[in-house]
Amino acid sequence: MSFCKDCIKGVRHEGDPSGTLETIAGVACYVATPTVDYAKDKVILLLPDAFGIELINAQLLADDFARNGFKVVAIDYFNGDGLPADQVLNAKSFDFWGWLATHGAEVTRPPLDKVIAALKEEGVTRFGATGYCFGGRYTFDLAFDNIIQCAVVSHPSLLKIPEDLETYFSKSATPLLINSCENDRLFPAEAQAKADEIFGDGKFAPGYRREYFPGCTHGFAVRGDLSDPLIKAGKEGSFLASVEFFLEHL
């Protein structure tokens, strides 16, 4: 597994979440529902970074997607044990690698599958996924299995390059948006160029788009310091690109 220091640092954003904490198929979820009429057969799965759905930043993102007409379900695939923001963001002592060792796919994937199955039983037929850092891995995995119909990843981690890009191209029919940035050890310039080489210039028929945000660092789309104009522009730009991509493809 590959992570970097920027996976576990950042800034808490401010605001009052308007969604609700619900239990779906025994899994804790944060659910944001549009206040206007919306397509009941569509849901965006918000797949959070290692801080999980408890971090207010993830909840506010879900609310923002809901304001654009999408029902959003943010899934607690860490089973109530996401990174403790009070310790990690304040640079207190925390054994990140010890935490990561107990949150492998055998623990974190089943909650995701349970929620998707339950939503299908409720009549959802089309899924989008927006994955941040850790969640980028699962967005790819869901696309590999063609479980989702639209995929967005922002500063993804845990990907094997070029293998996962090649697998996506050969196995998936899911349109893909990648929100990338200037300073990202986990999805660096070489990986970004490889993605363009594999998917770009119309080669990936379902649809491909990559956005690039200068002056931004891994984590910018969900934990960026909004007092920095470049990071603020990246956070807002990546969100706008995501909304546009879901409107086009979901």
What would you say about this model in short?
With 250 residues, the protein is α/β, with parallel strands linked by helices. The protein has helices at residues 56-67, 85-88, 96-101, 105-121, 134-144, 163-171, 189-199, 220-223, 229-249; strands at residues 20-24, 27-32, 42-47, 72-75, 126-132, 150-154, 176-183, 208-217. An eight-stranded mixed sheet has the order 1-2-4-3-5-6-7-8, with helices on both faces.
Protein described:
- The structure is a single chain.
- The chain is globular and about 40 Å long.
- The protein has 250 residues and is of the alpha/beta class.
- The chain has 9 helices and 8 strands.
- Strand 1 (20-24) and strand 2 form a beta hairpin.
* Beta strand count: 8
Spans with pLDDT under 50 lasting ≥5 residues? 1-13
Q: Number of helical segments?
A: 9
Mean pLDDT value: 90
Helix and strand content put the structural class at alpha/beta
Largest sheet entry:
8 strands, mixed
- How far apart the termini lie comes to 30 Å
Oligomerization state: single chain
The string of secondary-structure elements, in order, is: EEEHEHHHEHEHEHEHH
Task: Please state roughly what percent of the residues sit in beta strands, choosing from under 5%, 5-15%, 15-25%, 25-35%, 35-45% or over 45%.
Answer: 15-25%
Tell me roughly what share of residues is in helical segments: 25-40%
Largest sheet: spatial strand order:
1-2-4-3-5-6-7-8
Radius of gyration: 17 Å
Shape field: globular
